[in-house]
Amino acid sequence: MENVTKTLDAKGLACPMPVVRTKKAIEELSAGEVLEVLVTDRGSIADIPMWAKNTGHEYLELVEEGDVLKHYVRKGGDTGSKKEEPSVVKTITNEEYLEIAGKGPVTLIDVREPDEYAAGHAPGAKNIPLGQVEQRAEEIPAEGDVYIMCRSGGRAGMACDTLETLGRKNLIRVAPGMGDWNGPVE
Q1: pTM of the model
Q2: Residue 12, exposed/middle/buried by CB under 10 A (0-12, 13-18, 19+)?
Q3: pLDDT value, residue 83
Q4: CA separation (Å) from 166 to 15, 72, 147, 160, 161?
Q5: Which residue out of 10, 15, 111, 148 is catalytically annotated?
Q6: In whole angstroms, what is the distance from residue 105 CA to residue 124 CA?
Q7: CB-side neighbour CA atoms (13 Å) of 180
Q8: Correct CATH for 90-180 of 3.40.309.10, 3.40.50.11270, 3.40.250.10, 3.50.50.60
Q9: Cis peptide leading into 18, omega within 30 of 0?
């Protein structure tokens, strides 16, 4: 891509660090300038576009070169009006979730990428990757508690933010999520 103002090397970092570093790097740019973000974490395929959308920046494209993913983001103009703070949705710990799940059936949505989910997930979790949450919202119950999980809590928070814009009020984020999971795995 032409007209890249700055390149951020976030290779080798896992969620949520590519987004954290992207946020810091884009703060150094002026409106309209383009940030190239180099990552190896496949979770960034959903994370960075969703972050850009939620913070008023323009996600331009993704280019895959071997194991390296190149994201291109144009800094937005007035980002002060967009929501950048974490979701205020209720959050519980992994241990609290395990206690609740031990008492009976629960609805758990795992918003990690399919390969992360396939490598191991909490029992009964349904996989709806973060980048598909808005399009697949009808698959998520509108009634009863719905628990949202990812690797560290960051994507779960973004998923909750997205679902809240669709009017959902029944969401509970589970953090830190699968990255620090001590429960059973399927």
Answers
A1: 0.68
A2: exposed
A3: 45
A4: 25, 27, 16, 10, 9
A5: 15
A6: 9
A7: 11
A8: 3.40.250.10
A9: no
